[in-house]
């Protein structure tokens, strides 16, 4: 009898379990194959502003304005890889296989695809960066490997060398017959390039330089292309000239030298060169990073890249620049293209992530009002606040980096000193700000897609891991922001000494005058939608904040330097200085976004961009509302109005989110995430097929 009860109870439990399983399967089936006839329920948002006119956005028109004149070359890149499945990077691939595939991808693109990026590095940098963005979106490892070959190794030859170097190496670099490295970073010195310890001593008897690694700390480290494929390296070393005094040698500062590291025919490591593999990394494992040690490696005197300094046959040093510091600045100034490229490419990564997360959020349905269909998760306010300001930032960064590329291209043609300074400051600030923002946003996008965002096939993991190092190479972000802060303080001193401010900093003169005056108690209380969406109010608010931070940190530095000295005072105010630099960059980004809105020729596209620009501006102001409230720049009621309007703009941008992400014009092959394809009905089908259904 007791056995019968137990058996009956087990049967009942089994039936209940089966019922639960069946119900769960049915729910999953509905998600995988949503009923097409059921309209998606949208959550309504209570109106908090005046009635806003609906915007009809033409994706094609907006995309044409966004992508500009180099759209065709990017389409060629996408078409090449889309037509060659064997060159597409699989989800699961070993380090060694990935490295070989990356080399095949680069060689194929150049030799078979006929796309020659190196020809544009100097003559048309905007076209080069457009190719780099497209290549990086195919595989970020490939984008970095291409950058090492052409922007770093090739760029150092054409920018730091002279005609004899270009004549000898250009064709080989262009065709990838001369794969090369950029050997600057050492084990003990990364950001502090002036502290490099590798030495290049001139031997007048043989007319050669002797390259030496004096200690373990001077080993060249993290050198891309070194571990497997590189045959040459541009080595940065201290140029030592023999003297006839007791010192024996004179240190002429850091210079660049072309050093062969492998035999051109056998590919064996050359005598005196030691190469070691840096191994498996967090990301970018298609790039063969290695370590280089040199033991009395002799190279011809002509291998000195001598644009800014040369050594004659008898050992005399000549330069058009009078000091080591000026030569060093000129050398690094010619390498600023790497930062420009990273800022531009980082926006490309952000576009991919935002496209995938937004499309998924439009497709995915969860919960809803009682006895009604489930609603899109992008209808939830929390999801809008995660993704819509990010989408607005992506647009803002797009226009800011386009301007940076234009300025860089102009600089390469004119060599104007004022423009060189502007590009240096902008590239440092935008690279630091954008790559940091993108790194955080990649995690947010992954979280916004729930468990499906954790699947490797949906790309967030690889994008996050590959992009993470963008915050470090080509200048650590914290160091770069300090450079921007230092330049701001220099301009601040110029302002009060009556000097002329350069273009990028012009706004400081007017906004500093505004800061030194008290906030206007009338405008501090204006809270109408027209006022808050006025570009003048938005830009003034951004610039006011920058000027306030600049004035206050200048006072703090002056006070602390009396007791701590210059270095100690800087360190005491470091977080303040970083905030100042970020504020300045945000002001610049908004300025360029406002200009892009104004210049858009299509009325509907302009209206959409204005909406997105307003969200970018008001979201930033609200995120730092404490700063504005502390000095009564914004009254309490105005602060509430800003918050309410930013919230409403989030909702309005959501309503055109599909058109906005489609305007980036990234083909499904590029996003490659099943949950991020353009056609919702295909999304879950591709996803389930990927795991074997």
Automatic annotation (TrEMBL):
Its cofactor is FAD. GO terms for biological process: fatty acid metabolic process. Pfam families: ACOX, ACOX_C_alpha1, Acyl-CoA_dh_M. GO terms for cellular component: peroxisome. It comes from the Eukaryota. Residues 181-297 form the Acyl-CoA oxidase/dehydrogenase middle domain. The keyword Oxidoreductase applies. The active site is at residue 474. InterPro entries: ACO, ACOX_C_alpha1, Acyl-CoA_Oxase/DH_mid-dom, Acyl-CoA_Oxase/DH_mid-dom_sf, Acyl-CoA_oxidase, Acyl-CoA_oxidase_C, AcylCo_DH-like_C, AcylCoA_DH/oxidase_NM_dom_sf. Residues 535-677 form the Acyl-CoA oxidase C-terminal domain. Residues 333-489 form the Acyl-CoA oxidase C-alpha1 domain. GO terms for molecular function: oxidoreductase activity. This is Acyl-coenzyme A oxidase. It comes from Solanum stoloniferum.
């Amino acid at each position: 009898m007791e056995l019968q009860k137990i058996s009956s109870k087990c049967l009942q439990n089994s039936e209940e379990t089966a019922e639960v399983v069946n119900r769960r399967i049915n729910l999953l089936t509905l998600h995988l194959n949503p009923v097409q006839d059921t309209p998606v329920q949208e959550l309504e948002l209570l109106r908090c502003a005046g009635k806003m006119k609906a915007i009809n956005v033409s994706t094609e028109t907006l995309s044409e304005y966004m992508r500009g004149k180099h759209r065709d070359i990017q389409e060629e890149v996408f078409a090449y890889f889309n037509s060659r499945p064997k060159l597409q990077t699989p989800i699961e691939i070993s380090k060694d296989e990935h490295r070989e595939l990356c080399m095949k991808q680069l060689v194929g693109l150049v030799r078979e695809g006929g796309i020659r990026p190196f020809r544009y590095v100097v003559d048309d940098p905007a076209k080069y960066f457009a190719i780099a963005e497209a290549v990086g979106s195919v595989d970020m490892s490939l984008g970095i490997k291409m950058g090492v070959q052409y922007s770093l190794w090739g760029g150092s030859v054409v920018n730091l060398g002279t005609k004899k170097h270009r004549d000898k190496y250009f064709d080989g670099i262009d065709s990838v017959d001369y794969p090369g490295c950029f050997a600057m970073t050492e084990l003990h010195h990364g950001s502090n390039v002036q502290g490099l310890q590798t030495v290049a001593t001139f031997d007048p008897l043989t007319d050669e330089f002797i390259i030496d690694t004096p200690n373990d700390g001077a080993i060249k480290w993290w050198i891309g292309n070194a571990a497997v494929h590189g045959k040459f390296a541009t080595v940065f070393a201290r140029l030592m000239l023999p003297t006839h005094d007791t010192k024996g040698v004179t240190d002429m500062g850091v210079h660049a030298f072309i050093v062969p590291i492998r035999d051109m025919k056998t590919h064996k490591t050359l005598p005196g060169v030691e190469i070691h593999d840096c191994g498996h990394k967090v990301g970018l494992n298609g790039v063969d990073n290695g370590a280089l040690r040199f033991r009395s490696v002799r190279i011809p005197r002509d291998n000195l890249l001598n644009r800014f300094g040369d050594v004659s046959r008898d050992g005399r040093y000549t330069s058009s620049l009078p000091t080591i510091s000026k030569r060093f600045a000129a050398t690094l100034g010619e390498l600023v293209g790497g930062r420009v490229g990273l800022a531009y490419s980082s926006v490309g990564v952000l576009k991919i992530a935002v496209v995938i997360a937004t499309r998924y959020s439009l497709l995915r349905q969860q919960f809803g009002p009682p006895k009604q269909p489930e609603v899109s998760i992008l209808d939830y306010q929390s999801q809008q606040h995660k993704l819509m300001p990010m989408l607005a930032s992506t647009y803002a960064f797009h226009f800011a980096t386009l301007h940076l590329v234009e300025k860089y291209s102009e600089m390469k043609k004119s060599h104007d000193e004022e423009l060189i300074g502007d590009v240096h400051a902008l590239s440092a600030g935008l690279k630091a700000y954008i790559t940091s923002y993108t790194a955080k946003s990649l995690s947010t996008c992954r979280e916004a897609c729930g468990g499906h965002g954790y699947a490797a096939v949906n790309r967030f993991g690889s994008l996050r891991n590959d992009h993470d190092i963008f915050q470090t190479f080509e200048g650590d972000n914290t160091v770069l922001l300090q450079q921007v802060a230092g330049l701001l303080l220099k301009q601040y001193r110029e302002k009060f000494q009556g000097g002329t401010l350069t273009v990028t900093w012009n706004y400081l003169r007017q906004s500093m005058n505004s800061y030194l005056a008290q906030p206007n108690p009338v405008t501090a209380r204006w809270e109408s939608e027209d006022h808050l969406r006025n570009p003048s109010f938005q830009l003034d608010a951004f610039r006011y904040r920058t000027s306030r931070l600049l004035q206050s940190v200048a006072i703090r530095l002056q006070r602390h330097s009396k007791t701590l000295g210059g270095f100690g005072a800087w360190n005491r105010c470091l977080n303040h200085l970083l905030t100042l630099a970020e504020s300045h960059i945000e002001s610049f980004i908004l300025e360029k976004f406002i200009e892009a809105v104004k210049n858009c020729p299509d009325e509907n596209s302009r209206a959409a961009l204005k909406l997105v620009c307003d969200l970018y501006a008001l979201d930033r102001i609200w995120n730092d509302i404490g700063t504005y409230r502390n000095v009564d720049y914004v009254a309490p009621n105005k602060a509430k109005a800003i918050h309410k309007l930013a919230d409403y703009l989030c909702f309005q941008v959501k309503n055109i989110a599909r058109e906005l992400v489609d305007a980036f014009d990234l083909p499904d092959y590029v996003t490659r995430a099943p949950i991020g394809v353009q056609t919702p009905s295909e999304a879950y089908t591709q996803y389930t097929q990927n795991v074997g259904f």
